[in-house]
UniProtKB/TrEMBL annotation:
Keywords: ATP-binding, Magnesium, Nucleotide-binding
Reactions this protein catalyses: ATP + H2O = ADP + phosphate + H(+)
Keyword rRNA-binding: no
MF (Gene Ontology): ATP binding; ATP hydrolysis activity
Protein name, as recorded: AAA+ ATPase domain-containing protein
InterPro entries per UniProt: AAA+_ATPase (IPR003593), AAA_N_dom (IPR025753), At3g28540-like_C (IPR058017), ATPase_AAA_core (IPR003959), ATPase_AAA_CS (IPR003960), Mitochondrial_chaperone_BCS1 (IPR050747), P-loop_NTPase (IPR027417)
Swiss-Prot/TrEMBL cofactor(s): Mg(2+)
Domain AAA+ ATPase, first and last residues per copy: 261-408
Biological process per Gene Ontology, one example term: response to stress
Gene that encodes the chain: LOC123429943
Entries under Pfam families matching the protein: AAA, AAA_assoc, AAA_lid_At3g28540
Family named by the database record: Belongs to the AAA ATPase family. BCS1 subfamily.
Species lineage: Eukaryota, Viridiplantae, Streptophyta, Embryophyta, Tracheophyta
Spans through the membrane: none
Length: 482
């Protein structure tokens, strides 16, 4: 504990004297102001005022010192370490992307409109339209309580000498005392905001592996599924969304606890309950590319490793029907074969050389793959969770298990809205009663709802379909166990 030292007598005296002096100075000032008002004519008072202002401007408090960062469109080649290094300055591009969000077309009289093509490290490209400042334009931005001023200057103009070889430049200026905020917070903030904006803008890709060669082929991914259109238990949907949001925000957390920044989801449930739709919704929500791994096309463990290493960050690895991809039956169920069978590298089902193994996949995912990249999500789907190897279900492996079940009342309401924009109908109560006892998948309900564009007809078709099925009673369901 700290205690305040008692002030010495001398200090108290000095403090009192200072107070008395301050009081008498302000008293004199008030008296002088009053006398001046009474005794001096207006012209003389104005002249005194002007004189005081002049003295202040010459000798008084000087304007705060400003610092400027110059950001050139292209980096001077001499600064590059490699001969073939690109001369494009990333910071310039990021600043322009960021500043586009600060442009107000209503208040700025001259603007530039451009379209740029961005090539991602994975080879995909996307174009975006950008509003930017015209040469000579300026923008003021506020961040963390600090004012930052941006100017866009053209090479070859008045500032031609300064920017020789650099093309166009952006100048960022701020109070000198805010240098730490500028460099340690504002510039990183601009870079990360620009990256996020570009990510939102870029076209998504889905990559599939070639047979045998261990390489990916990508095409644009336009699956329309979103969390908005997904018909599932609302609580479970929110839990998945919250988990994804938490994952995205936790870079530092994963670093601190020494774990790779990856997350695994196991989606399980009968066919047609929306597992693939949920995968697409997750990719769209995160703006992550999808890598759809078909294990039957992978020749051996080393091809598998090559494929996994070639995946980019911020991506989702999907292995559908994981129960069919390996001998994933639970080890307890193996009557005739011991674990040693697996370790000798032979496939005891065929007697031949085993191509790839579940342990090969899991070891690699836990090992090199998880440390060679970041922000990776891995999704396994299965129609039969009970057939999975316990190694897959071990805590820490698949972080969240999501059960995609038969169509419940809430899921039906979502589908009715998706397909017919209705939130109520005289047939709804009857459908609700039937859904409580009939096992029907969202895919089947969707199909019925699509039978007619007329909502009355489509709901009648669904009603009859459910009545036909009503002999089958739902078995109790094991809900999600995150
Ligand atoms: N939960 C859902 N929400 C919205 N649409 C769904 C849902 N489930 C299924 N559908 C509809 O049914 C179609 C098939 O569903 P999907 O392929 O996502 O199911 P799945 O569980 O992955 O099936 P499988 O196990 O056979 O691969 C989807 O394209 C979609 O139109």
């Amino acid at each position: 504990m700290t205690s305040m030292a008692a002030p010495s007598e001398g200090a108290v005296e000095a403090f009192k004297k200072a107070l008395a002096t301050a009081a008498s100075v302000s008293a004199y000032a008030m008296l002088a102001r009053g006398m001046a008002r009474e005794l001096l004519p207006d012209e003389l008072r104005a002249a005194v005022h002007w004189g005081a202002a002049f003295v202040c401007s010459r000798f008084g408090a000087r304007e705060k010192e400003r610092h400027t960062i110059v950001i050139r469109r292209s980096v001077d080649k001499n600064q590059c370490h490699y001969d073939n290094a690109s001369s494009q300055n990333d910071v310039f591009d990021a600043a322009r992307t960021y500043l586009a969000t600060k442009i107000n077309p209503r208040t700025m009289s001259r603007l530039c409109l451009g379209r740029s093509l961005t090539t991602e490290p994975d080879g995909s490209s996307s174009s975006s339209t950008l509003l930017s400042m015209e040469h000579g334009g300026s923008i003021t931005d506020h961040f963390d309580g600090v004012e930052f001023r941006w100017m866009f200057i053209e090479a070859g103009g008045d500032d031609g000498d300064r920017v020789k070889g650099g093309g166009e430049i952006l100048e960022l200026s701020y109070d000198a005392e805010q240098t730490d905020t500028a460099l340690d917070k504002y510039v990183p903030f601009i870079m990360s905001t620009a990256e996020e904006l570009r990510r939102q803008d870029r076209a998504l890709k889905i990559f599939m592996n070639d047979y045998g060669y261990g390489s990916w082929q990508g095409i644009n991914h336009h699956h329309p599924a979103s969390f908005e259109t997904l018909a599932m238990d609302p609580g479970l949907k929110q839990a998945v969304l919250d988990d994804l949001d938490r994952f995205l925000k936790r870079k530092e957390y994963y670093q601190r606890i020494g774990k790779a920044w990856k997350r695994g989801y196991l989606l399980y449930g009968p066919p047609g309950t929306g597992k693939s739709s949920l995968v697409a919704a997750m990719a769209n929500y995160l703006r992550f590319n999808l890598y759809d791994l078909d294990l039957s096309s992978v020749h051996d463990n080393s091809s598998l490793q090559r494929l996994l290493i070639d995946m980019s960050n911020k991506s989702i690895l999907v292995i559908e029907d994981i129960d069919c991809s390996f001998d994933t039956m639970s080890r307890e169920d193996r009557k005739d074969h011991s674990l040693e069978d697996e370790e000798d590298g032979r496939d005891y089902r065929t007697g031949g050389e085993r191509k790839i193994t579940l342990s090969g996949l899991l070891n690699f995912i836990d090992g090199l793959w998880s440390t060679s990249g970041e922000e990776r999500i891995m999704i396994f789907t299965t129609n039969y969770k009970d057939r999975l190897d316990p190694a897959l279900l071990r805590p820490g492996r698949m972080d969240m298990h999501v059960y995609m079940g038969y169509c419940c009342w809430e899921a039906f309401r979502k589908l009715a809205w998706n397909y017919h924009l209705i939130d109520g109908h005289p047939l709804f109560p009857g459908i609700q009663e039937l859904l409580a006892v009939v096992e029907v998948t969202p895919a089947e309900v969707s199909e019925m709802l699509l039978r007619s564009e007329d909502a009355d007809v489509a709901l009648q078709v669904l009603m009859e379909f459910l009545q036909e099925r009503s002999g089958a009673v739902k078995e109790p369901e094991d809900k999600h166990d995150a």
